[in-house]
Amino acid sequence: MFRPLFLPVLAVLAACQPTYTFDPEQVATGPGGMVGNGEPITSGNFTGGDDVLPEARPVSTLPNDTRPPDCDADCVAYCNGAGLQNPVNRGLCRSLWGVGLSHRPVIQAEACRRLFVDMLGRVPTADEAESTCSGGWGATVKRLMESDEFILVQQRRAADRFLYSNEVTSLQAIYDMDRLVAKLYRGLVPYDLFAAVVSAHPVFTRRYADPGDKAEALFTQFLGRPPFEHERADMARLYKLWHSGYYDHPQLGMRLPDAFIRFRCLDDNGAVDEVSRGECASVLWGYNEVIFTPDLRAARDPNLNELSLWSGLLTGEEWAKLQTPGRILARQLDFWERAVDDVLMQYLGYELSAKVPEVREELVRWVLQNNGDIRSVHYAVATSAAYLQSAEGASSNAYRWTYGPLKQVDAEVWIDSMARNTGLELPGCDHRISQPEALLNSGSIAAYRLLQESRWRTDDKGEIDERYSEVARTLGGCPENVVGGRFRVVSILTTATQLSFVQTLCNPTLDPAAKGAAAVEKLLPASVGPSRAVNADVAEEIATHQFRLLLGRSPDDTERADAREAGTACALTLCSAEDFARPYCFALLSSAERVFY
Q1: PROSITE patterns from the xrefs (predicted)?
Q2: Which of 292, 448, 483, 545 has the CB geometry, 3.0–4.6 Å to 525, for a possible disulfide?
Q3: CA distance readout (Å), 483 to 164, 207, 220
């Protein structure tokens, strides 16, 4: 019987790694640190951001509800001569301008607000919007994509997508995946390499116990469909080695759930078994084999009475071998189709590709021309006519791509924007640590330091400050990701939660004992003091200030007239500026414009 020499995992760690003081900034460990360490794969200077959009081609009969747009030879010639560089616009033309349909003229403030919410995760003030959304939409989107806030939004979306949970997966692996996502959106990692790394990443493999479940999850994530049964069975062979276990972190003083490698398809001597090696090989997409043989890094698992290897000890070459499933899928056309569909859904909120397949075709060519840089797709969609058009008056038109998107904001966007615009200081929740109590209860100084360096905060009693997370989780955000994830819903409960939060923030009843209310000076223009008597002019000045601060735009004529009327009524009761400003704050922040964008 083969009996290899082996060292316990911790002993190997001590021998192979230097002793160091725990640094919360260096907690990430995994395959994400082995890629994307060179120069960006593209310059990031993408074209097509400022297309001159054509007018609708004159046609004898416009398309209607009973038939889809039909692009004839004149339509094709019209679109070919339109000079469009943006791939979304090129794909749209034969279902929009070329068949006589028009897009809805963009409203600058509406489009800029939409860009801020989607790309930075918050509503801008009017001053921010006017200073940022200038110099053309291409320049605007480029500025937004280069910000750290854009990276954070994408990292939070990845946490929702892959269900980060420190109850299920090692914190080291979660931080490593977060680092990998940042590299992806800084243009350091092409999307096909990203998918390959994810396919064997402990965040992914530790969540699904069965090899077939891993294969199915991979197909669903990157092809947008479950595998056929023969595909599932074949791909599962490449996941046969993975095993879920636990690792005792030497600095955190915690037992972390983590992924391990078991040795399969070997004979009694630890060599590859020629009879059973096919059980660790995929044959549908060419012959691909994933087999490891044990060495000194292997340790015997007392629960299974077999040798296993902690994933934290794998070499770069071994990680590359384990990433075979992701590389297989990345060679498929529908892999890239799914990649661009995900971005379209993120920005538009509906499946444009299903309605206008030419958009998907153009975007797939576009991302491949840009070396798989997924930022190029974000840039193309965010500067396209499909995205940068108004949603007003949309219900009268049957064709979804002829008016702009209208979506519900995430809970974090709603809360963060409220707090930022009114100057309220709140704790947060960290997408990397869905159960912060585990760190707090560990009794480890290193774990406590990691918690303190995160976006979570503790209160005066040393417990997790849940003022933010309680509201966010009621509204579907800040998910724990153990079983389910984020949700969006409009219900009595969520409406009551939102109104209660706004009530506390604005304090419309002027309760002197209220805690957590925004400073009245924030709600008033600099020229108006809290005790100043209100008239129509003062009311309009306050309203203009709050519209620009809280909604990111100036009021229109109707809204100004309504404010003046309210100010005139307020003057009859000798009300002060604060008497007017706090209820007005409540009216604006409880409006649908703060929930939908």
Answers
A1: PROKAR_LIPOPROTEIN
A2: 545
A3: 11, 10, 17
